[in-house]
Amino acid sequence: MKIAIPVTGERHVAGHAGQARNWLLYDCVPGTPLPAPNAITLAREQVLHHFEDDGPHPLDGVEVVIAASAGDGFVRHMAKRGAEVLLTGEQQPDDALARILAGEALPDPRFDITTTLCKIRDLFSRH
Fold first, then answer.
1. Long-range contacts, stretch 75-79, CB < 8 angstroms, 24+ apart
2. Which of 65, 80, 118, 127 is the most exposed place for a label (fewest CB within 10 A)?
3. CA pair distance 102, 82, nearest whole angstrom
C-alpha cells in the first residue's frame, strides 16, 4: 500500500496538501516494520493544485494521503486518482503512519483559518 504525506521543511505533516511540493512516499507492507520513506519534491507544474492530469505523476498509485489540511477540491481530485485523504493533527509523519497501519484513529486536525478560505475557493475548482 502506497501512502503519501506532504511535509514542511522541518518534516512535519503539512497542510494545504494541494499546494505541497515536498512529500514522503511510503510503500507499506502490512505486518512489517515501517519502511523508510522516499522523499519527493514536485516541480511547480506537478503540484496537485496546478497539475492538469495530462500525464504520469510522481504520486501515481498512492492509495492514502495523510495531511494536516486539504480543501474539498483536493479531496475530490485525489478520489478521482484512487486515493483516500485522511486529515490529522499529528505532526510527525512516522507517528501518523504507524497509527494508520495499526488501525488506530488519527488525532483530529487543528483549526486552520486558511482551510476555510480554501473551501470557498474550492467551490469554483475544476476538480
1. 76/125, 76/127, 77/18, 77/48, 77/127, 78/48
2. 80
3. 22
Q: Which residues of the chain register pLDDT less than 70?
A: 111-127
Instruction: Give residue 21's Cα distance to chain centre.
Output: 11
Tell me the C-alpha distance between 4 and 85, whole Å. Answer: 10
Q: What is the pTM of this model?
A: 0.86
Dist. CA 39–CA 23, nearest whole Å: 6
* CA–CA separation, 26 and 35 (whole Å): 6
Amino acid at 70: A
Distance, in Å, from the CA atom of 6 to the CA atom of 85, rounded to the nearest integer, reads 11
